Amino acid sequence: MANEIVNRVANSKLMVFDLEDLYPEGERRLFDIKDWLYEGLVLREKDFREQVKNYNWSQHKNQYIAITCSTDAIIPAWAFMLLVVNLEPFVEKAIIGSLEDLETSIYQDIINEIDIDSYRDKPIIVKGCANKPVPVNAYTMAIKKLKPIAKSLMYGEACSSVPLFKR
User: Fold this and answer.
1) pLDDT of residue 13
2) At a CB cut-off of 8 Å and minimum separation 6, what does 101 contact?
């Protein structure tokens, strides 16, 4: 057949790097300590330690936690450390910051550990348009990891990609 449709993308050496495929399932939660502070502003050590002692930490099993304080309170570093000590046996990950900081930290761990050897000397397209909350920083981390081994780097979809780098 002269008019046969050929999928040139499927037949090419183009490799797709999809950050969405790396997204780990698990609930993300913001843990705000403002309610554990006197009038939402002052950390009283005895009261804070009592809250920590009486809190049901197991409710966060397998969750990803971003610890924050939404008020203008000055929180000493040991308070955050105490929270992490108690969360650590139950959670997948705990950080101090926002939910976006949490996602960035999760992706940083994943990208640092991923084996990219199968992408060596190949044209790579970093897929865009994620349906999951892939932070923008994850794309920059991926590019930094892929650039030394890639023949070329593009962003987007195979049908409409934006060239980024060519060796």
Assistant:
1) 82
2) 66, 95
Structure tokens at 125: 């397209």
Low-confidence ranges of the chain (pLDDT < 50): 6-11
> pTM of the entire structure?
0.84
For the chain, first and last CA: distance in Å? 38
* Helix, strand, coil percent values for the chain (each to nearest 5): 40, 20, 40
Distance of CA 35 to the CA centre of its chain: 27
**Contact indicator for 65, 33 with CB cutoff of 8 Å:** no
Partners of 64 in the β-ladder: 28, 93
Chain centre to alpha carbon of residue 132 = 11
45: enclosing H helix or E strand:
helix 45-54
The sign of the CA dihedral 59, 64, 69, 70 is negative
Contacts of 3 (CB under 8 A, 6+ apart): none
